[in-house]
Amino acid sequence: MYLFIALTILCKVAAGAEWCYQSQVTCDNNCKGPDEWKNVFSECGNKKQSPINIVTKQVLADHRLTPVQFTGYQKTLRSVIKNNGHSVQINLPDSAVINGANLGASYKAQQCHLHWGTSGGPGSEHTIDGEQYPMELHIVHIKENYNSLEEAVGDPLGVAVLGFFYEESRSDNEKYQPIINSLNNITLPDTNVTLEGLSLEMLIPSFDTLGEYFRYQGSLTTPGCFEAVVWTIFQQTIPLSKQQLSAFSHLQSHNETAMINTHRPVQPRYGREVYHSGSYVFCVSTALLVSSVFSFLWFDF
Question: Strand, helix or coil at 210?
């Protein structure tokens, strides 16, 4: 009987431990910020966690990383965009598929969501040489033989996430206006509206600009932080105006705090290699070689 009572209390404590971002932790809630996630969700303390800081001088060229092949990304969506209390999420149809790029399998899209800062300030999860972009888009896919994300995370290669950075532009990105306009209707958590007339292709840079990307093995960036993700982080950025970037900061999270700084801090790499699709490293090496040659000729002269 005592064991049953103890287990019941333990379950209630775990269930009541709502996770959140650091900006949403207050003295009045039971919200667990990123530093405490590992105390409730043990995998969040493991050694293949995401996001990470990508140090470009340390990346390895991998010529097997050919361009990602996109299928169904051009198809117009009729989907739901929702405030899930932690982010803005758009549910996606299984018909959007990626393969190639040394993924080893085909992966079907499930959802996409965003991470941002405050009023257009730094807010991406991954960083490049310590630089944090204003916002980051994650398009989440699972292997085609799985039926759900919950099923896919049991496979170390079960999930493939495409990551895109945003940068501030002088003018609005008209392709994003349907999303920006919908935010006024999902200010409160657990609200949603139908989103029409949009395709995944509209949300990302042109396919012919996506040959440059980083690849590494990591995890989901939210609890339970399952280490089942093949990450592909593109260098080509997406432009949004300051006003468009700031629009996301008007949303509210589950605990009635502002939905700002919705990003997990970068995690230790613990020796994991980060690879690049090849030409970036080649270009850097070529530039260094040319510079050395010119320096030699200059001093020789």
Answer: coil
The answer to the question of residue 109 being in a domain is yes
User: Is there a contact between 101 and 67 (Cβ–Cβ < 8 Å)?
Assistant: yes
Catalytic residue among 86, 138, 254, 276: 86
Query: Which candidate, 272, 263, 262, 144, places its Cα nearest to that of 218?
Result: 272
CATH of the domain at 89: 3.10.200.10
Q: Catalytic site residue 86?
A: yes
Q: What is the pLDDT of residues 188-198, one digit of tens each?
A: 999 999 999 89
**259-298 pLDDT per residue, tens:** 999 999 999 999 999 999 975 444 443 333 333 333 333 4
Rounded to an integer, what distance in angstroms lies between the CA atom of residue 286 and that of residue 15? Answer: 55
- The mean pLDDT value for 127-132 works out to 98
Q: What are the beta bridge partners of residue 99? A: 69
- Number of domains, the chain: 1
